Amino acid sequence: MELLTEADPGAGCGRRQSARRASRALLGRTGPEALHSEIDNPLDLIAGHQMLAEPEDRRPGPAVPPRLNPAPAGCTCGHPLCAEAAHRETLPTRVFLVERHPVACAGLRSVLGPVPDMAVVGSSGNPDRALEAVRRIRPDVILLGGGDTLGDDLSAVVRLRGPEGYPGARILLLRRAESTTEASRMLLAGASGCFPLELAEDRIISTVSMAAAGATVFLPAPPPVQVHPASLAGHAGEPLPQHCGLTGRERQVLAQLARGLSNAEIGRELALAEATVKKHLTQAMRKTGQSDRLRAALYAHRHGLAG
Description:
four-stranded parallel sheet, 12 helices
């Protein structure tokens, strides 16, 4: 099982073609249930380049066939009907490896190196030492693993996609997302998903291709956080979130609070002023009957508001 989200429409022409080839190859080997991809909507792409021409003279005559409009300059859609894309050379997906374990790094090279439309352009065993190389090489995808904790990996993601690295790189973590909360933390840090190293070789190739094309990929799909009745012991009298009249924004603030964020950090995550965050949090605490921030955060965890 896997989780994919819609791709960034600005992804490169060659990257989309690589993703489609990898997807078709995967479907041919393992069946349609193995891949749930929404990285391309053919109707949207065709709409940009194919129109039905209306004859200037509407007198009876032969039907006018569809015509292909000239592609706009610099088009990057990657659709086969695009005249410009059809003549552009397909560039390989450039992959940089950040993995402290040499055996794992060598294994990834052996999997990705022989793929015709991929190129492993560098590697490093330490994210900090990789910054300069990433800034110079500007890879399409970075595979990042080896951190002792998820927090270590997320800190590395922020640095690698920051000014000292390359903000345009898409980063896949070489670990599982153990819950939807962890998946959310990965996305908020700037990662494009994750997969474990024990994944089959063809799935690794297709995952890297889809990430390069702009997709967000989690393999396997993270399980949702389960709220067990036992976890509500001692809190039977507290109101349920759906009965408190919480607004959507108040729920968002509680969810971010449950992640341990300060008001300033919540404001940055939700694009709100710190004073506005404080107002929403105060209202949420009043409605749920929680007297302080810690109790409000625990309330959000008990009732599954944190993800």
